[in-house]
Amino acid sequence: MVGKSAQAGSRVAVLMGGLSAEREVSLSSGHECAKALRVAGYDVVELDAGRDLAARLAESNPVCVFNALHGRWGEDGCVQGMLEWLAIPYTHSGVLASALAMDKSAAKAAYVAAGLPVVQSVLATRDEVASAHVLPPPYVVKPNNEGSSVGVYIVREGANAPRLAETMPQTVMVETYAPGRELTVAVLGDRALTVTDIITEGWYDYDAKYKTGGSRHEVPAAIPAEISEACLDYALRAHKALGCRGLSRTDFRWDETRGLAGLILLETNTQPGMTPTSLAPEQAAYCGISFPDLCAWIVEDASCNR
């Protein structure tokens, strides 16, 4: 495989860890990607991304950066901006797309402009959420700028307004609860791969995503062709609406009692989990792309100044 930014044998710095609530997930993704890139023939240096990241990148002098960071700072455009300033090609989405996707309210505005189906939502303060129902229950309260289901509250019908933890940001998103099955689609470049049905007991929260036995994945999802085709179409349109590049993954909820009208787009992850059993690599494997080849493709797609 010949790339435009880093051919086999080139030095690639894999960024992992970082400062967000998703640090441990990022470390797991980063170590697995580093192993895969070594299998693919790259000279890999692993960097736990701290405040001295710019200096450590200067020391290691990579041809490009594989960004395996998750959450704020590493996934929201901040590190991407630093890499642009350092003129080091990097993987996944650029500054604007990364910032848009991390800001759930801004991302929803982009989805609506692209004609994609979303649920009603509003931004509110912690005090407003605790004092009265901002939306009619059932609804979901979550940070406007975190991923991996960090800090999610589900408020059922008949429940009181929730008291949010002090660790929640001052401004949160409140959105109408979307019932149904959890579906997801990975997009690689200009190709939507397939649909995964994520099967779990209850809400697909942080534990369900990352703890052993928390969920199981059905690839491809056993759903009607109309729903599968719509998921693929919506995921690719979301990828383009946000201006993503490389790999992204878009999540859906589908209320099968309502047919196509029950399919709702939740959010797009510009740097999805990257262990061999994570959702996007599972879909790539189903499409005949091995994990080392997937990581190599992502490196070869790395760029700067866009």
Brief characterization of the structure:
With 306 residues, this protein is an alpha+beta fold.
Largest sheet features? 5 strands, antiparallel
Total helix count? 10
By CATH reckoning, the class of the largest domain would read Alpha Beta
Helix content: 25-40%
| CATH homology group of the largest domain | ATP-grasp fold, B domain
Q: What do we call the CATH topology of the largest domain?
A: D-amino Acid Aminotransferase, Chain A, domain 1
The geometry reads as globular
The order of strands across the largest sheet is 10-9-8-11-12
Oligomer state equals single chain
Report the C-alpha radius of gyration, rounded: 19 Å
Return residue spans where pLDDT drops below 50 for at least 5 consecutive residues. Answer: 204-210
Element string (H = helix, E = strand): EHEHEHHHEHEEEEEHEHEEHH
Total of domains: 3
Second-tier CATH architecture of the largest domain: 2-Layer Sandwich
Approximately what portion of the residues adopt beta-strand conformation?
15-25%
Give the number of DSSP strands: 12
